[in-house]
């Protein structure tokens, strides 16, 4: 992959694993300094070590995206270290639902909405003024194909990802004239720990999930990273407010 980036610094939340880690590595491979943010210090330090091993520049910042003080501090630490944040990938998310809507608990609802919705809102609340002061930037939020449609046993998750798209489009419109672009990626099923936790125990379910994608397989973390980098790159300069499915054709059905 080779793209043009006018900016120099990228920030990724949920960067200790999965899609976030792959995207942090991809930004670093393009020569950007990367702020690796996560609640999981061990995993995030692992991401930083991988970037350093490839001669890249990265900084770990511990951040629980549900906590305003953490998010504020994450942005302050990023600016202290690198002077600016040109690209933000708000990707931290959880999927803990097991049952149909009436089986969900209030605690599950609050936890999912807390990370997936409040977390993205809080991150943008502190990123947008910084990018405004800098004269521009690009934000990508992780939604899901579950934010475009629905499936059984994920009502809270689906609602949370619909909300991410709402936040994305609202911010895109509010800041469109200020050289700040805001987009979302909508992955279908991607081979990460989240996916393995949900499907590995049941090979039949895993097979069904693979064939549910017209391409006949689940996606890779690198395929999402590639889309995120494109949305941040200069090549996407006329693209804002988009919820981009990266889904092996699932939403074409
Ligand atoms: P993952 O579980 O591998 O990684 C998620 C990361 O987010 C972890 O490192 C975790 O520590 C971090 N995190 C969780 N809560 C946090 C918090 N409060 N503050 C900061 N960090 C926190 O999952 P993944 O599959 O890489 O998922 C990344 C994103 O992609 C999520 O938003 C998820 O909803 C979305 N997504 C995943 C899939 C999939 O199939 N894997 C599909 C569509 C969307």
Labels describing this entry:
7 strands; 253 residues; alpha/beta; globular; Rossmann fold; 47% helix; 15% strand; 8 helices
Question: How would you explain this protein's 3D organization?
Answer:
There is one protein chain. This protein is of the alpha/beta class and 253 residues long. The protein has a single domain (9-190, 222-246), classed as Rossmann fold, CATH 3.40.50.720. It is built from eight helices and seven strands; from the N terminus they run βαβαβαβαβαβαααβ. The chain has a seven-stranded parallel β-sheet with strand order 3-2-1-4-5-6-7, with helices on both faces. Helix 4 links the parallel strand 4 and strand 5 (137-142). Helix 3 packs parallel to helix 4 and helix 4 (106-134) runs parallel beside helix 5. The chain starts with 8 loop residues before the first strand and ends in a 7-residue tail after the last strand. Bound molecules: nicotinamide-adenine-dinucleotide (NAD). Nicotinamide-adenine-dinucleotide binds next to helix 1, helix 4 and helix 6.
């Amino acid at each position: 992959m080779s793209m043009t980036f006018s900016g120099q610094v990228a920030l990724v939340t949920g960067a200790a694993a999965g899609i976030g880690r792959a995207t942090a590595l991809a930004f670093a491979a393009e020569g950007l300094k990367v702020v690796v943010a996560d609640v999981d210090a061990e995993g995030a330090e692992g991401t930083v070590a991988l970037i350093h091993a490839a001669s890249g520049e990265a900084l770990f910042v511990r951040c629980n995206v549900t906590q305003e003080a953490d998010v504020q501090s994450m942005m302050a630490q990023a600016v202290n270290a690198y002077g600016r944040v040109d690209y933000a990938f708000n990707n931290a998310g959880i999927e803990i639902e097991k049952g149909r809507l009436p089986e969900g608990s209030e605690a599950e609802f609050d936890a999912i909405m807390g990370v997936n919705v409040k977390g993205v809102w809080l991150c943008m609340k502190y990123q947008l003024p910084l990018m405004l002061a800098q004269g521009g930037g690009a934000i990508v939020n992780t939604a899901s194909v579950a934010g475009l449609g629905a499936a059984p046993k994920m009502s809270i998750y689906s609602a949370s990802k619909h909300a991410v798209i709402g936040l994305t489009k609202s911010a895109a419109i509010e800041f469109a004239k200020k050289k700040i672009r805001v987009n979302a990626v909508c992955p279908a099923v991607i081979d990460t720990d989240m996916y393995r936790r949900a499907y590995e125990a049941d090979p039949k379910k895993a097979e069904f999930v693979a064939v549910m994608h017209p391409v006949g397989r689940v996606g890779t973390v690198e395929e999402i990273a590639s889309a995120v980098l494109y949305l941040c790159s200069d090549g996407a300069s006329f693209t804002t407010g988009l919820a981009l499915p990266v889904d092996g054709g699932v939403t074409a059905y």
